[in-house]
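Predict the 3D structure for this chain.
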Amino acid sequence: MKSLVVYTSQTGFTEQYATWLSEKLNGQIMTLDEAKGRVSAFFENFDALIYGGWAMAGKIQKADWFLERLDGWKGKKLALFMVGASPNESPDVPVVLEQILDENQKQYARVFYCQGGLNYDKMSLLNKIVMKIFAGVMKKKNPEAGEMVSKSYNIADPKYLDPLIAYLKEVK
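Done. Predicted structure below.
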């Protein structure tokens, strides 16, 4: 199966997962900016197309480019993955994933979640401010969770790609 992993990353966690995934699939990898520079015929060469982006406010950042093209790629294995700071076991994860694709897209594409972490050193100033405010609010509701998101941490692991890889290897 010839696969292409397209990604965008703010702090490095999504890039790490995209790299792990492309290695496990023996596939090609490129940034979203690189993919945007390709003509549509380029994507016809692949059996599987995967987009990875970082999670913010319940959305996969910059996924519109991929989502707008899904319909034209229906004959391929299509998947998106989102990388966020919440653990995979968080009850919010399935709720968020359910809202990414519309009902039609759910017929031929899937969405997955991979826990990553937070890296305040690589965040934009705006995102640092937003996260510090969020951490303050969280500390009042759930002190343990609030403390966790108030500093950088890394909970990424390639094992969280296993469900995505299993989906891609399923025979249609």
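The beta strands are 3-7, 28-31, 48-56, 59-60, 77-84, 109-115, 117-118, 153-154.
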